[in-house]
Specification:
Elements: E1 3-8, H1 16-29, E2 34-39, H2 41-44, H3 51-67, E3 76-79, H4 85-96, H5 99-103, H6 106-113, H7 120-134, E4 140-142, H8 148-165, E5 174-176, H9 205-213, H10 232-240, H11 243-255, H12 260-287, H13 289-318
Helix pairs in contact: 3-12, 4-7, 4-13, 7-8, 9-12, 10-12
Bound molecules: adenosine-5'-diphosphate (ADP) and tryptophan.
The site of tryptophan has 11 residues, from strand 1 and helix 7.
Length: about 325
Amino acid sequence: MKTSLTGIKPTGTPHIGNYLGAIKPALELAESYRSLYFIADYHAFTSNHDPKSMRSDVYDVAATWLACGLDPARTILYRQSHIPEVFELTWIFDCLLAAGQLERGHAYKDAIAHGESPNAGIFNYPALMAADIVLFDCNIVPVGKDQKQHIELARDVATRLNHLFGEGTVVVPEIKYEESLLVPGVDGRKMSKSYNNYIPVFASAKELRSGVMKIVTGSEGLADPKEAEGTTVFQLYCAIATPAQANEMAVKLKKGGYGWGHAKQDLYEALEAELGPSREKYAALRADEKALDRILEDGAVRAREISLKTIDRVRRAIGLR
Ligand code: ADP
Ligand code: TRP
């Protein structure tokens, strides 16, 4: 059975863009792959030095994924910081990567271009991510397009290690990303925490509705015919509704007599139908941090059964055993 692995950076409340663009597709993959999904808390530490929010962001992510349907008996769910082998392999990769490759990392390069002085964690971010991936003999890594460069670097360093120290020492991962799906936020730009234009996955029904009602629309009147294509409400509706429902909305808009308020109400109802039933489950999971710890610790034990074997193979291959 092939392995799917992905890391989720705990950086604030997960939103509908994360749900549709990352959580849902990864959970679908978990049905046909051995799956390892982890909370990338050490990656979050490159930018979050507040212990209180770090703690709560980790639990938010774990409870969200579980409430969205992650089955911890089937998917190995763990925290990156529970896997010490990640650091060992990061160092090994650091010594195999050219510094120039890390200098070209987009996060590091952007920070330098903006005149910031990024910490060395930002510089090494891609090496840590390569270690996350390669430790688990993983075949596919479902990620957004923004992570493509990181996966390519992981493939590159894994290939180099095999070339220098023996083919088959580590598994070279593939990338799987969804090119087409980009969920817009309420202002029409990409939904993102950094734009503050997002709707949280588990907002209350009232907050969900008021989030949807904030979406920017054209100023056509109720009776006017409206073009659905390219509008934020319609893009969001397409991401959540069936193709038949989406087509129905486009037809109604075109005909006139169906206003943006009606379209938003239909969008709200579709979102509520998808997310509403899991809301209570989320609240119950999030309220019991001890139970979340137990799930994450159990995941780490199972994950280390794999990572300890990989690191042993690597140590032997490079002459450290
Ligand atoms: P943010 O931009 O809010 O900080 P992240 O970078 O933490 O979001 O996103 C985590 C993952 O969720 C990304 O790898 C990406 O695949 C997915 N994702 C985030 N925002 C969107 C979006 N607007 N549409 C589709 N997928 C998204
Ligand atoms: N860098 C990824 C992000 O920002 C998170 C991540 C860390 C990751 N390690 C990973 C994703 C390994 C896939 C595989 O979204």
